[in-house]
UniProtKB/TrEMBL annotation:
InterPro entries, alphabetized: Lysidine-tRNA-synth_C (IPR012796), Rossmann-like_a/b/a_fold (IPR014729), TilS/TtcA_N (IPR011063), tRNA_Ile_lys_synt (IPR012094), tRNA_Ile_lys_synt_N (IPR012795)
Annotated coiled-coil segments of the chain: none
Binding site for ATP: 25-30
Function description: Ligates lysine onto the cytidine present at position 34 of the AUA codon-specific tRNA(Ile) that contains the anticodon CAU, in an ATP-dependent manner. Cytidine is converted to lysidine, thus changing the amino acid specificity of the tRNA from methionine to isoleucine.
Protein name (Swiss-Prot/TrEMBL): tRNA(Ile)-lysidine synthase
BP GO terms, sorted: tRNA modification
Length: 466
């Protein structure tokens, strides 16, 4: 009785008549998976398509690995799809680690092979991409995420099965199987896998977890791997439950607001915090912000929800802002002008009691209550960063000045006028920073200037303007 083959057969990940693209590095895990799938292929009518990626990181050895895998495939009567690329150069060019570049490059190669099958007429849903991650990899992944900082989703570890963006199933049939069992299988079947020297290098964070942290933790609990995997399974259940609840809420309780972002129902603040945070996380995912969110961003959103104040707002990644509009949380997209500016230019607004306000250099400050009187309690949400428009004016002592006239007086060339960032509320300009193409000195609206009676101050900062 072969426990590894049985475990894979019983895992429900391998379906009959499937076309399986397999990532075959030549190491013990993928050699074991390849052997197991070959064993099952007649019984389950599987078609296998091995893919090997040569990352060119270990000159000589990498070529030997590639030749080994290609020979093995030939001997098995299968074509090997080999991809060679200079991982180190690509990582440098992209400012990534070689691990990151290697990972997405591999996924690209697997997907390219799967797409080629589709072009040959294979139905997309009959194709799976099989990776050979094992139970030890899973425990290390959970520890890695735990240390980096994560939530219930990250603690769940890698999914045994998921669909990628192109609609292919990614499966990990060995995910429940310990490394020791895989090595045993390789010995029993005389597979003679290749060894990757870089696996022993503590230069890589993942290797340090495997070689240093896990052995240290085993001294506290010899069954630490199982304990971590149980935590992962339990987190996955909690995540699945929250996913279901969040999906139901988002159908009814959240609206897309054209290009301006997302708006939630008023009852969001009353939900259990665990569900609320999950919903907000999912919503941020739909805006493409999830990856760049930090715990400070989440705390900012929670704080404005708690305050309920229309003047409260919190910065989010990529120039998005969270604010309250009529008791509803709104995640607002950056204004068009801000989008037209380099990506790092964004508006930061802070409302604080006068005695707590600070005055960062280059920022503008106004009397928040005076603005509220003029534009209503949700005045903060109306403030935008944009370029000029017709009818724009700046409040000056004793009247108003057209922005058009101001630019003429300043002798700003016509071709530059549409590139000057302005902070405005409606047609009224509050602040024009000094800048390369802007006026020689900053301009501030005189209508909301601070006075000895100012109780609340709004600080307006354009981050990223030099
Ligand atoms: N050079 C390679 N060529 C083809 N497939 C590979 C190669 N390296 C890894 N794989 C496949 O990817 C699986 C995972 O490998 P590895 O743990 O090195 O990658 P990873 O994607 O960086 O994983 P992690 O998610 O743990 O960071 C392997 O089991 C194998 O199936």
């Amino acid at each position: 009785m072969n426990t590894v083959v049985d475990a894979v057969r019983n895992s429900s990940l391998i379906r009959e008549h499937q076309h399986i693209v397999i990532g075959l590095s030549g190491g013990p895990d993928s050699m074991c998976l390849f052997s197991v799938l070959k064993n099952l292929s007649a019984e389950l009518d599987l078609k296998l398509y091995p893919v090997h990626v040569n990352h060119k990181i270990r000159p000589g050895e990498a070529e030997a690995d590639q030749a080994f895998v290609e020979r093995l495939c030939r001997e098995s009567g299968l074509d090997c799809y080999s991809v060679e690329f200079d991982c180190r150069a690509a990582a440098e060019a992209r400012g990534e680690t070689t691990e990151e570049t290697g990972r997405w490059m591999r996924y690209e190669a697997f997907r390219a092979r799967a797409e080629a099958l589709c072009e040959q007429g294979v139905d997309r849903k009959d194709i799976a991409v099989a990776l050979a991650h094992n139970a030890d990899d899973q425990a290390e992944t959970i520890m890695f995420r735990l240390m980096r900082g994560t939530g219930v989703g990250g603690l769940s570890g890698m999914a045994a099965e998921r669909e990628d963006e192109a609609g292919f199933r990614i499966i990990r049939p060995l995910l429940e199987i310990p490394k020791s069992r895989i090595l045993e299988y390789c010995r029993e079947h005389d597979l003679q896998p290749r060894t990757d020297r870089t696996n022993a290098s503590t230069e890589y964070a993942r290797n340090r977890i495997r070689l240093e942290l896990m052995p240290a933790l085993r001294q506290y609990n010899p069954h630490i791997r199982e304990a971590i995997l149980r935590l992962g399974r339990s987190a996955a259940e909690t995540r699945d439950y929250l996913d279901t609840m969040a999906a139901a809420y988002m159908k009814e309780g959240m609206e897309r607001r054209g290009e301006t972002g997302l708006c939630f129902r008023k009852d969001l603040a009353e939900l259990h915090p665990a569900l609320r945070k999950h919903i907000i996380g999912k919503a941020l995912g739909t805006l493409g912000l999830f990856q760049d969110m930090t715990s400070a961003h989440y705390s900012g959103i929670e704080a404005i929800l708690r305050s309920g104040s229309p003047s409260a707002s919190a910065d989010l990644p990529h120039g998005y802002r969270a604010c309250m509009e009529y008791g509803r949380l709104v995640l607002r997209a950056p204004s068009r002008a801000a989008e037209a500016e380099p990506a790092h230019v964004r508006l930061a607004l802070t409302v604080l009691p006068a005695e707590e306000a600070d005055f960062p250099p280059g920022a503008a400050v106004f009397d928040a209550d005076a603005l509220e009187d003029a534009y209503g309690s949700d005045f903060v949400t109306k403030i935008t960063l944009r370029t000029r428009g017709s009818g724009d004016f700046l409040g000056i002592r004793g009247g108003r000045k057209k922005i058009q006239d101001l630019f003429v007086d300043e002798k700003i060339p016509k071709e530059k006028r549409d590139r000057i960032p302005l902070v405005a509320i409606g047609r009224e300009v509050l602040f024009i920073p000094r800048g390369d193409c802007g006026p020689s000195r900053p301009r501030y609206s005189a209508n909301y200037a601070l006075s000895p009676d100012t109780k609340r101050v709004i600080t307006v900062e354009i981050i990223g303007i030099v």
